[in-house]
Amino acid sequence: AQTVTQSQPEMSVQEAETVTLSCTYDTSESDYYLFWYKQPPSRQMILVIRQEAYKQQNATENRFSVNFQKAAKSFSLKISDSQLGDAAMYFCAYRDNDMRFGAGTRLTVKP
Amino acid sequence: EAQVTQNPRYLITVTGKKLTVTCSQNMNHEYMSWYRQDPGLGLRQIYYSMNVEVTDKGDVPEGYKVSRKEKRNFPLILESPSPNQTSLYFCARNRATNEKLFFGSGTQLSVL
Questions:
Q1: Of B48, B105, B106, the CB nearest to A98
Q2: In whole angstroms, how far apart are CA A17 and each of A36, A78, B29, B58?
Q3: pLDDT at A14 > cutoff 90
């Protein structure tokens, strides 16, 4: 079964600085999708960014970008110009038929 | 607006008292699923459904039941809840594999 590993239970960043959240996954599939979800204290699950495995170009959404390394099975999230509203739990997820999530990284943003 | 409606948002119950968490969607999507979220474990899939009358176990199905009698609804049933089922539960739906999951607002369940 596919597994998703987030090795950083907690991360902290200074406001306006850049932070990178790590994610690795294990799969034998060649066609799949990767996601980063944000969960603020409201508990709502919010999609941050999505990456198709067949695309070599890294996805970007405003201040959020990914570093997708398919051979290494790595999918890190970079948040630039961090804002107080970025403080949340971040979940990495892998999907072929079903979606599997990592354990999450709690991001704190210091003013 | 596309929605996944999940109820209740909070539920406190006692061991052994049957309960149902409801989930409905207004987009006529085939795929629906249930997850539980626990600290340090992330979200783990309980059951999923690819279409009406088609359901299958996820990673942690023990102690749970689901039904999919119609496309719109996908209730989660705990026949005899136990304290280890205290968790945050999410229902989700989507149309295709490459789409993001659309999540409900979550149900915080406490079993005493």
A1: B48
A2: 20, 11, 40, 39
A3: yes
